[in-house]
Amino acid sequence: MENKEFYNIALQDNKGNTGTMASYAGQVLLIVNTATGCGFTPQYADIQALYDKYQAQGFTVLDFPCNQFANQAPGSAEEISTFCTLHYNTTFPQFAKCNVNGKNAHPLFVHLKKKKGGLLFSSIKWNFTKFLVDRQGNVVARFAPTVPASTIEKEIQKYI
User: Fold this and answer.
1) Integer CA distances (angstroms), 143 to 76, 112, 127, in order
2) Higher confidence at residue 104 or residue 1?
3) What is the pTM of this model?
4) CB-side neighbour CA atoms (13 Å) of 50
């Protein structure tokens, strides 16, 4: 059964275009809060490799730059996009910079944390926290920034 609450969440991409999560209905999603100046930034390469490998099977990565952690994503949307493309050849969708915690947290991250949170994980601790969403819009897994791509790949394969 499709998760209407999830698919009604509004989005703004890194070029200012607006839409909703409904654009991604029926796809397996890996939603990541990212930063260009983080020690985990090299994960972009592994995330892109997962996207390349599974995109044709209905898998998409959604990249949400976040400057909430030690100001590690300070650039404009264009600067962040250029950095990611130049250094990691990213081709997956990138969205407007957003907050993932606090009163100004993006509604998407409020939803993700509510579904895969609990008391220990109610807030996002750092950049490159990842959420896996199945084809019906259900949040099925949450990964800490330190979790390797191989672990995420095994989970993705369950839902492809």
Assistant:
1) 27, 12, 11
2) 104
3) 0.92
4) 26
